[in-house]
Amino acid sequence: MVNQRVKPILVAFTLFLGLFAFGTKANAAEPNYVISTDATYAPFDFQDKNNEYVGIDQDILKEVAKRNHFTYTLKPMSFNAAAQMVANGQADGIIAGMAITDERKQVYDVSDSYYKTGVAWITKKGSKIKSLSELKGKTVALKSGTAASNYGLSLQKKYGFKVKYFNDTDTMYNDVVNGNSAATFEDMPVIQYAIKNGLDLEVKNPNNPGNAGGYGFFVKKGQNPQLIADFNKTLKEMKADGSYQKIVDKYLKSDQKNFTGSSADNNSTWGILRSNKKAFFDGLVQTIELTVAGIILASLWGMVLGLMGVAKSKFLRGLSTTIIYAFRGLPLMVLAFFIYIGLPGVIGTKIPAFTAGLLTLILNEGAYTGAFVRGGFEAVDRGQMEAARSLGLPYGKAMSKVVVPQGLKIMVPSFVNQFIITLKDTSILSAIGILELTQTGTLIVARNSQGFRVWAIIGLIYMIVITLLTWFSNWLKKRLD
After folding, report:
1. HSE, side-chain direction, 13 A CA sphere, residue 317
2. How far apart are CA 138 and CA 37, in angstroms?
3. What separation in angstroms does the CA of 310 have from each of 318, 320, 321, 395, 405?
4. pLDDT at 368 (0 to 100)
5. pLDDT for the residue numbered 6
6. In sequence order, which residues have a C-beta less than 8 Å from that of residue 72 and are 6 or more positions away?
7. 329-385, pLDDT tens digit by residue?
8. Which of 10, 83, 144, 362 is the residue whose CA sits 20 to 30 A from 398?
9. Mean pLDDT over the full length of the chain
10. Residue 59 Cα distances to 53, 64, 250, angstroms
11. Cα–Cα distance, 141 to 149 (Å, whole number)
12. pTM exceeds 0.85 for this model
């Protein structure tokens, strides 16, 4: 049997060659749905101290699945990416504290509202700002794509503030805590949960929330009507039998330490490291797997591009230059979103997150590798080729026996440096839900609001690994010299 960690790599390589693998058919008696979510939205969607996905949304979803005899695969990622996955058919539904709006009803079919909410406006604790009118000329932080963001934006012209956008909740909160933004807008239960968890913010309109509305479960318009019907039926049953209220009370009225861990664990760097050691280790393993697989396959692709770049054929040289130019010019995140969210709508095949991330690294890092491989071959003295040809060697054999071995020796430090770059670039792939080291940190911070300590640990882990790779690079270079 193929190892589960190796399987996505093989799928990526197959996709890269143009042969797209299809998943096995779901059991007709128990369908499996792909459900996307934003796992940084406590108390609705987040990871608890045991690194399990929990929250009001998740408990409701589990009950709906149980009572209607279906299974689901959860896909946690940034909110915008999670919503787009449903819109383009990569996921069957989304539950992520997503407000029901007329605009969203144009794109999605939506369930009955399962939670009534309203928008709070928030400042740093102790701020002298007392009214919205005092925000004139100041900067307000908004989380892109959310109903709270749209509400805040609707007030911009009236109150004259500037806005800047963030993709995740914790970064937005801390921008206000650190004084970079004067205020932010957020759904009332979400910010109240975060403040209860120790975040140094305060709600300015606790008794007068704006833009009151409801959260819903969304599917792509015209798709999965049975899923919406099952959700609505079960929601009605849960409200009638009291299980719905138990779920809400579990997260809004019980002690948050049940989910976040003890104060001793969360209020010290060592405590966070000790209580989350498995999560950090798993994130590091995923990062290393992506890095190793990415650099090997990107190196192979880069070698092909480099050889094409010094080929006798003008067409091959031009094709190599075009591919290198295109994929070096694309930002890594744009390429990742294109492969994971955009491409499936064109080819009609779902692409797993790990596979999409791996393809992103192959194409992007392979282009950079191709550039220095081509440069390495061109750095070999032209007289070497001329001497080989004068001895009667054909062009291909002269390249493989004379130029390539000398060029590879020149390239070795560049290969190791590219390995380090690839390691750091894996952090960008957290945007498509890959649970590597950076995404691990994001989920832990969403739970315990200890951004400084968690990111210090993540940064230290990266530095240790990169330092080891740098030592290896220097050792290898000395041996070759």
Report:
1. 8
2. 32
3. 10, 9, 10, 11, 15
4. 92
5. 52
6. 32, 33, 34, 35, 61, 65, 92
7. 899 999 999 999 888 878 878 888 899 999 999 999 999 999 888 887 777 767 766
8. 362
9. 86
10. 9, 9, 10
11. 9
12. no
- CA–chain centroid gap for 189, Å, is 24
Across 121-130, 149-158, 292-301, 379-388, least confident range:
379-388
Mean predicted confidence (pLDDT) in 407-426: 81
31: Cβ contacts below 8 Å, ≥ 6 apart: 70, 71
pLDDT at res. 274: 87
Q: pLDDT category, 318, cuts 50, 70, 90?
A: very high
